[in-house]
Amino acid sequence: MNNNIVIQVDKLTKEFGDFTAVNAISFEVSRGEIFGFLGANGAGKTTAMKMLIGISKPSSGEAQVAGYSVRTQAEVIKKNIGYMSQKFALYDDLTVRENIAFFGGIYGLSKEGIREKADRLIEELGLGAVSKSLVGSLPLGWKQKLAFSVSMLHDPKIVFLDEPTGGVDPITRRQFWEMIYKAANNGTTIFVTTHYMDEAEYCDRVSIMVEGKIEALDTPKRLKEQFKADSMNAVFLKLARNIE
Questions:
Q1: For the ABC transporter domain, which residue ranges apply (predicted)?
Q2: CA–CA separation, 129 and 203 (whole Å)
Q3: I need a labelling partner for 177 at 20 to 30 A (CA). Which of 33, 72, 119, 160 fits?
């Protein structure tokens, strides 16, 4: 795999009986790129992501993530990526600091490394006053930012974000994207699924899935030019009508 390519997907397919959830998708993602994986609910985004992060085996096709095969090296992939699910994957009955320590241990960090990371994270996120509070008591936006930071505790090459901004206000969404930009500028590749079409504008490139297939893939600017649209939402609507 090209050293600059960190995700390489070739005809990746996932079938559930007679239903094909992901249908022979192919694409590449470069180091430090913010890659948007767009589509309506049920389009196959999350199913595709689960194969890429090593928790679901493909029915056919192949993919390499951080240089490792999703078919034969899933456990190694998990050690080289970060992942933030729709539910943020934090434990509500643990404090902020305890959550950081717990996930730091899972990622194999030393006690000293965990302590240093926790101190830095709490300071950067402005959570000093609530570091001993249960995560369940925090506002949704704070949970979201903490979950993203925790997913990067072990300095992964790639971070997968599954609908990370669902349910939060526009200001918090913007702050979250500022964190994404900072991570990408430091060389981390961001793979993000979303159904908010305006968020596609923040990505370097986007793919649009419709019924398990990638029907469009390019920069937001080129997609808007191609579909003669003034927004990514308009691109998506035109694409969906063409498929119908």
A1: 7-236
A2: 33
A3: 119
Query: What CATH number does residue 169 fall under?
Result: 3.40.50.300
Query: What is the value of pTM for the model shown?
Result: 0.91
Domain count, the chain: 1
Please report, as a single letter, which amino acid is at residue 56.
Answer: S
Amino acid in the structure at residue 54:
G
Radius of gyration of the chain (CA): 18
Query: Is the dihedral angle over the CA atoms 131, 119, 182, 43 positive or is it negative?
Result: negative
Match 């194999």 to its residue by tokens: 108
Cα distances (Å, whole numbers) of residue 60 to 42, 50, 51, 100, 203: 20, 14, 11, 37, 28
Contact in structure between 226 and 215 (CB atoms under 8 Å):
no
* Residue 87: both structure tokens together: 């539910």
Q: Locate all alpha helices (DSSP H) within the chain, ordered by sequence.
A: 45-52, 74-80, 96-106, 111-124, 140-151, 170-185, 220-226, 232-243
Residues 61 and 8: beta-carbon distance below 8 Å = no
Query: Tokens representing 163?
Result: 């609908």
What three-state secondary structure class fits 227? coil
Burial (0-12, 13-18, 19+ Cβ within 10 Å), 238: middle
Q: In whole angstroms, what is the distance from residue 29 CA to residue 6 CA?
A: 6
- Structure tokens belonging to residue 57: 């085996």
Write down the H helix ranges in 55-95: 74-80
* Residue 169 belongs to domain spanning: 5-243
Cβ atoms of 190 and 37 within 8 Å: the answer is no
DSSP β-ladder status, 5-16 and 19-30: antiparallel
pLDDT digits (tens, 9 = 90+) for 228-242: 999 988 998 888 777
